Amino acid sequence: MKGQNKLFIFIIVALVIGVIMGGVVHTQYPESSEGFAKNIKLLGTIFIRLVQMIIAPLVFTTLVVGIAKMSDLKMIGRVGTKAMLWFITASLVSLTIGLIFVNWLEPGRVMQLPKPAADAAGDMVANSQGLSLEEFVKHIIPKSLFEAFATNEVLQIVVFSIMFGVALANMGEEYTKPIVRALDICAHAILKMVGYIMWFAPLGVLGAIAAVVATNGFDIFKVYAIYLRDFFFALAVLWLVLCVVGYMILGNRLFELLRRIKEPLLIAFSTTSSEAVFPKLVEELERFGCNNRIVSFILPLGYSFNLDGSMMYMTFAAIFIAQIYGIDMTLGQQVIMLLVLMLTSKGIAGVPRASLVIIVATCTMFGIPPEGIALILPIDHFCDMGRSMTNVLGNALATSAVSKWEGQLENHGGDM
């Protein structure tokens, strides 16, 4: 049995145990529910702090490496520019669709939870509650990289990472290759740590669910049903938008492309990882007629910069958590959040549940309790199936579109 499937089963088992424990306390020992909830939530706190521990190094290493490797754009010229324009536009559209639908459907308003008290290490969470455009501008530039790392100030880390990555990209590959390779190794090691930390997720789920059921009863399952319904509805709209744009560019060949990539789409759906289908996707896109040089450049870049499903999910999940804790965010704050996610999501590969790290970081920045991530973990696997499949579709369309714009899309298959 694969690790991700085992983890999913453990999370479901933890969910059931948590429901039983919380249900027993809620019905049989109501006078002890508050004390029980306070103690059992420590399991969730452990998991959240483990996630928060790796946010700063993960954002720094992945963003620097992603930008430094973009020195290839100088050699490829027009192709790179067109690819980045597609990636940026698709990212903004995906994030905006998530923002619109979570505000319209309001899945988090079904049940209200009390906002957790800020812990000793969470002063930044409390202070960032009043984050405005003025505060955003004032705090965007770090006084010290080490201070930004120590306080998990993601925006400041992003600013430094972009400048550092651009500097490396303009110093020549031969000169900077050792440091880029070292940071790339660090990034992969940290992503490996994400996998390890996710094995603590069942404990976090057990603690969060048991505490919620003990104090609020069984209303949480109504929330889950509505959350999944609304998310997949928003995802269907994103698919419609992507397919309409794809049809405008490819015409009737869009349907041929969808037939070609149906197997990668199903694999991504079942494994919850868009990276798992990378080799097969390369093969199918070349058979579809995309130029193999364009495929070999755009597809790896797309896996870092064009994760449409993951980005839509990040705005959806972050605002959902704010809603369930009764936190009202202004339009300005939500637009700033969208721009923050636009930057911080770059460089995060299609690793299962890696986007949860970015959601935790964003919630922390905007004064939204990061503990809320443990509430959606039991159903995150199902959401991950949909967003991984969407990531594959987005990257296949991007590669095909750029090939068509460059006049490099053959009608009967390209070079293998």
From TrEMBL:
Primary location group: membrane
Gene Ontology CC entries for this record: plasma membrane
Pfam family for this entry, one: SDF
Keywords: Cell membrane, Membrane, Symport, Transmembrane, Transmembrane helix, Transport
A single GO BP: dicarboxylic acid transport
Molecular-function annotations in GO: symporter activity
InterPro entries on file: Na-dicarboxylate_symporter, Na:dicarbo_symporter_sf
Transmembrane segments: 7-26, 46-71, 83-105, 154-172, 193-214, 226-250, 331-349, 356-379
Keyword presence, Membrane: yes
Membrane topology: Multi-pass membrane protein
Localization: Cell membrane
Protein name, UniProt field: C4-dicarboxylate ABC transporter
Annotated organism of origin: Kaistella antarctica
